[in-house]
């Protein structure tokens, strides 16, 4: 008997991470453990441990310690060059900085440890700053990041004018209203950064499992603030994973349906499904609110787990069980049809190849939130990179209709989140990206009575 449960978990308020690490050198393991134990951990509700930031730009000094910020709220926003979410938030933080600069000091802290000499992250910040006219202070200093072994970004400390740490968050809900309440002395709750671990024990390797009385069990629950875990079915059936069934965490309902009918919740350019299957279901239902989702504010996300005997754990069986569970709980029917759907198409002018033909013998690549600069790069890889760095195409399939081949040089210097800027740069290179319609396989979700 397959059982479907619904577990609703209430949203959490601020929590404090319980694991921090000190800097560990080449000393013995015992000394390393002692070093970690001796690190004073930032703890919400207590004074923030003292620190010093070096290499500060857009600030009155190039070096500052915690005491230098006394009398103002301090928001330390830790980031690194590869964090698109971090960089995309800068214009918003800049607006808040301009409005609250008399009461709040916003300080970006860039992790230079991943760069040789820190040059790449500094250049990225300068490019974004120039394009977006930023006035945000930024310290290029990895000391805090390494001291507390921070690996997930954005990572934000909010410290009151007396040096008390009031929140550790990921910045998703640092809004005008909340900053205003903070400065007015009102109580404010921010989304917690530290998340409970979800994946521990996920491979079900306990030998006692074979003696369990449970043959089949499926669980559907509301996602709150666990770790995201979004694998395809094939991955969990591989020998190295050895999962008896399937588990996923933090999936939006449209993508849970994708998983049930195509075996993957999401696919990107280069995948066998990419140009054949529309990347999100078409909704033929009266009330589509259950399909609204936002992973930044944790809205409309679910966890799903299916346990079954190893002999039954095939991709086809797992997909069938997920399909049945979705129908039982949500009450929709789903069919795979062929329909014309909107797509993005990359096109080129007649002389585009002459404009783009590589003049370099050395292959180089530079891509981030501020640019995509390629030299002696094979065109076949360029559409993928455009989709990767642009935000506008998102879940709509992108087709290459340029017929370009060979090695090219291309320079797109723009804030990649700004579609109009990117398109303007593409046109300078004899390219464009436009919307069309193409016939593709589509998962159509309908009310039962439709």
TrEMBL record:
Recorded superkingdom: Bacteria
Residue stretches making up the Thioredoxin domain: 42-188
InterPro entries given in the database record: AhpC/TSA, Thioredoxin-like_sf, Thioredoxin_domain, Thioredoxin_ResA/DsbE_sf
UniProt cross-references to PROSITE patterns, sorted A to Z: THIOREDOXIN_2 (PS51352)
Database matches in Gene3D superfamilies: Glutaredoxin
Cited SUPFAM superfamilies: Thioredoxin-like
Pfam families with a match to the protein in the record: AhpC-TSA (PF00578)
GO molecular function: antioxidant activity; oxidoreductase activity
Protein name (Swiss-Prot/TrEMBL): Peroxiredoxin
Organism: Chitinophaga niabensis
